[in-house]
Write a structure and sequence with these properties.
329 residues; alpha/beta; five-stranded mixed β-sheet; 12 helices
């Protein structure tokens, strides 16, 4: 078993390399993904090893990147598009919603669009405007798209390969503030035996409160669980992993045991993923709940300037406050 300690970013690089090696129809395209290796160096070294016909530097035109990838996917390729930053995806939004998400349905199932749209998302890196957004609800709301987010190096390595191997269009959200966090990665893990792509799982078992998160907030919630344990509270943390389709079976089972639930995400609370999850938990687990399902989220404002972003982002204290409030009923 070839297990190495890698950062999340290096794990993504290794997963992309594996996909390129395994399937000659896989191509990577985006702004500066070639010689530079991407702004976060996620594609570092791939153009050198696989050539500029498979790792393609594109013009600065997100709509053009996605539109070209649609054509490639229809012709049997498996394009992997990098959107350099979350806030840059909006020029491509029309292509993603009108073409990528609709082509399979429009063709009555005759055409597949096996493409992956990689988006570094979320804040916490001290960036300027348009570089720290959380657009996941836009895409999760769109029928025909699947949306996933990794939270650990092992998941990053496996999930990016699973997404590329899928015949469905997948928006792959990468927690940019976690790119440099390290973890063990099994580089020999066969995809056939890997944890399913569209499945949530328990990241930390507990008995008192179910805390739900995805992407960058999983680490925040795990840290909150460690802090809560010092006060005698045992939090169960669930990494949702898939945002569309949502996999809530493990969530319902957990909430029926704990009787309490807190949903955490960076995106604003208004019409966010947390509202949908809270509604579904209430529908399915109403008689098991000891308190309302609470949300911890970003505020309903544009993402703030970097110098005050820590006031905007959900942190350990806000998660623990919500946990305390679930015991107030």
């Amino acid at each position: 078993m070839a297990t190495e300690t890698l950062t999340l970013g290096k794990a993504l690089n290794a997963g992309l390399r594996k996909a390129l090696e395994n399937d000659p129809k896989v191509v990577i395209m985006g702004e500066d993904v070639g010689k530079l290796g991407g702004v976060f160096r996620i594609t570092d070294g791939l153009q050198k090893d696989f050539g500029d016909q498979r790792v393609i530097d594109t013009p600065l035109a997100e709509s053009g990147i996605i539109g070209t990838a649609v054509g490639l996917a229809i012709r049997g390729y498996r394009p992997v598009c990098e959107i350099q930053f979350d806030g840059f995806v909006y020029p491509a939004y029309d292509q993603i919603v009108s073409q990528v998400a609709k082509m399979h349905y429009r063709s009555r199932g005759k055409l597949n669009i096996p493409m992956v749209i990689r988006i570094p998302f979320g804040g916490g890196i001290g960036a300027v405007e348009h570089h720290s957004e959380s657009p996941e609800a836009y895409f999760a709301h769109t029928a025909g798209l699947k949306v996933v987010s990794c939270a650990s190096p092992q998941d990053a390595y496996v999930m990016i390969q699973q997404a590329i191997a899928s015949d469905d269009p997948i928006v792959f959200l990468e927690p940019k503030r976690r790119y440099w966090e390290k973890g063990a990665v099994d580089l020999d893990a066969p995809l056939s035996e890997a944890y399913p792509l569209h499945s949530a799982r328990v990241a930390r078992a507990g008995t008192d409160v179910t805390v739900l998160a995805y992407g960058p907030m999983v680490r925040t919630c795990l840290d909150a669980a460690t802090a809560a344990a010092e006060d005698g509270r045992n939090l169960e943390v669930i990494d949702l992993r898939t945002l569309s389709p949502l996999d809530l079976g493990v969530v319902y089972e957990s909430v029926r045991r704990t009787g309490r639930a807190v949903v955490v995400h960076e995106a604003p609370s208004n019409v966010g993923l947390g509202a949908e999850i809270a509604a579904r938990i209430t529908e399915e687990c109403f008689y098991s709940l000891e308190s309302p399902v609470l949300r911890v989220a970003g505020f309903d404002t544009p993402y703030p300037a970097a110098r005050v972003e820590e006031e905007y982002l959900p942190d350990l204290d806000r998660v623990l406050d919500a946990v305390d409030r679930t015991f107030g009923w």
